[in-house]
Amino acid sequence: MSILLVEDNPQDEKLILRSLKKMNLANKIDVARDGQQALDYLFQENEFASLKGEPLPTVVLLDINLPRVNGLDVLARLRNNPRTKLLPVVILTSSDDERDRLRSYENGANSFVNKPLEFSEFAETVARLGVYWLITNKPAPTGI
Question: How many domains does the chain contain in total?
């Protein structure tokens, strides 16, 4: 089981990684720091061409406000590709804008979660996300 974290804020990245590792939820947690890097990783292109044939992550934790390609555009591209259209994507954002939430679900997000401001609440939220998406949730079948 692996996770792709798409996060441009170094402090949030550090907290999310620490929270997930503390729970021992994923064998591998990869990080993309902008939307284009996330697309390259998931489509195994450019700097990630060596990943060709590797399985997709179990879940993508995707911020909205990203450099180069924003999170909503990343999500739309994932949903328009047969290989990634069923990949679970959780929007994990500091945005509290209802339009962002609506656009996230319109573009096929599986979940929309606000990043809590308080450190301990943030860590707990990330841990709960990990438990749900990596242990509780049953992913869509592949290869059917």
Answer: 1
Burial class (CB in 10 A: 0-12, 13-18, 19+), 128: middle
Domain of 57, CATH number, reads 3.40.50.2300
Model pTM above 0.90: no
Rg value, the chain, Cα: 14
How would you write the pLDDT of the chain (144 residues) with one tens digit per residue?
A: 788 999 999 998 998 888 888 877 667 889 999 999 999 999 999 999 988 888 899 899 999 999 999 999 999 999 999 999 999 999 988 888 899 999 999 999 998 988 877 777 877 888 777 777 777 778 777 654
